[in-house]
Amino acid sequence: MRQTPRVRWGEFAIESLIRVIGFSTVGFVIIIFLFLLREGLPAFAQINLDNLFGTRWYPTFGLFGTLPLVLGSALITITAIVIALPLGVATAVFVREVAPNWAREILKPMIEVLAGIPSVVLGFFGMTLVAPIVRETFGAPTGLVAFTGALILAYMSLPTIISVAEDALDAVPKLYRDAGLAMGATQWQTIWRVVVPAARSGILTAVMLGMGRAIGETMAVMMVTGNAARMPLGLDALFRPVRTMTATIAAEMGEVAHGSVHYHALFAIGIILFVITFLINLAAASTMFRKRRRGGLR
Amino acid sequence: MDKIRTEHLYFYYGRKQALWDINIAIPERRITALIGPSGCGKSTFLRCLNRMNDTIPRTRAEGRVYLDGQDIYSPDTNVVELRRRVGMVFQRPNPFPASVFDNVAFGPRVLGLYSRAELADVVEESLRSAGLWDEVKDNLRQDALSLSLGQQQRLCIARVVAVKPEVILMDEPCSALDPIATLKIEDLMRALSKEYTIVIVTHNMQQAARASDFTAFMLSDAERTGQLIEFGPTADVFTRPRDKRTEDYITGRFG
């Protein structure tokens, strides 16, 4: 069967269009990364590495130590995950394994709505409601501390963790549940000893995606963590103000002179953040890949 | 001596009737095979005996199923306890994605056995009685999914044996296996029947003839799904069937 030139040309046009759109997505990522490098790399040349990875961030005095910011981000992200992981997994187990069908139908969309709440709203919520509670409960001088930020971030990463973990539980074959139950394990023992371990790589992916979400979050964090660029060391670090990488960039970018050392330093923070989130996503992707290779298990 | 006895057992998936008035007495420490064409209710019947059908929503059983004279469908039955007494091997080997050791140790651990030495004993004993010990003893930490299918199925049998049940239900345990692995499972069943009451669903009539002591033939007709047509010693059912339909089926006229 011969095609008319018209059809062939239309086919070609659509194919090329799709190809261009597809490649442009990759292109944009590369362009953004190159832009980040162009603006950020000079900082590594202009600022002493001792200074850049030092413990003091006072740009006005030429001190560009990013360590407190990196540790600040790490502290609240890890705390957030420590809070969100048990809650998220427990919720996923409830939604998938325990809740009756009608409850699942209500819960799943609600959890998805949770993901859509703008972060500034959560920040406001954290400032006005959570911060006073934290201040009073823990006797901190102010409620705008790392712990408040971690609570808000935990709340923000929950929808991601729940829905990815729930998918992982859903992918566990019924055969495993049957095997557990048929051996006289209770429902709880079956969930805890069979289903959750079988879904562990998916749950790990959920945690890492939640982490990626948490570490990149800016607005809510900037509103509730107090933004003091101090080293978050010592036992009380959780109940002192901290400043994250994201909040620093967002707060200071508006007031720096284009092309100044400070300007490049902010982009250098951007590069560090990019590398960290890239590594987290890479780890998440590789566990997913491993899972697929093993035929959907582990 | 009857281990399991059913009286007027009916079963429904929602509105769909699946078993019709099953009355059978399954003898203790013997192998009872359930045969019949697809959709005749063999597996449904099997899953009534340890109430695995309870896990399927909107199902209903009527009538009585006695295990050692106790009605397992009475309201005060502890289903978890029942399933410890009546273990099950499934159609497709379904070891957990864990090590060989952890698979066999699952049941004992669930029962609260944690001592390392005792666990090791139970695991060895169970693997031996499933005829798998010599093949895996050098590497009990290996992933259960790396075993061959036949080995996986024997591992599943070891896993059930480790709980020390009284009855083992097998739902077409060889349908995914090659002939040699199948023969191994049949030998194993023979050995296990010294201690356990075994009920096996099979599509394979040679298997029923070879490996069972008693055979039940089930069939559906237009109105009634899942009837028990004939039940008796395997030799009798295969050589002098009382019912015309049994004869037609075993001589291969349908099914």
Description:
The complex is a heterodimer of chains A (298) and B (255). Chain A has 298 residues and is mostly helical. Chain A folds into 2 domains: 5-46; 50-293, MetI-like fold (Orthogonal Bundle). Chain A is built from 12 helices and 2 strands, in the order H-H-E-E-H-H-H-H-H-H-H-H-H-H. Chain A has helices spanning 5-46, 49-52, 67-98, 101-115, 119-138, 146-170, 174-182, 187-198, 200-216, 219-224, 245-252, 261-293; strands at residues 57-58, 63-64. In chain A, strands 1-2 form a two-stranded antiparallel ribbon. Chain A is flat, with a radius of gyration of 24 Å. The N and C termini of chain A lie far apart (49 Å). Mean pLDDT of chain A is 89; it is low at 293-298. With 255 residues, chain B is of the alpha/beta class. Chain B has a single domain, classed as Rossmann fold, CATH 3.40.50.300. In chain B, 35% of the residues lie in helices and 26% in strands. Chain B has 10 helices and 10 strands. A 6-stranded mixed sheet of chain B has the order 6-7-8-3-9-10, sandwiched between helices. In chain B, strands 2-1-4-5 form a 4-stranded antiparallel sheet, covered by helices on one side. In chain B, helix 3 runs parallel beside helix 6 (149-161) and helix 6 (149-161) packs parallel to helix 7 (179-192). Chain B is globular. Chain B starts with a strand and ends in a 5-residue tail after the last helix. The model of chain B has no long low-confidence stretch (mean pLDDT 93). The chains are: A mainly alpha (298), B alpha/beta (255).
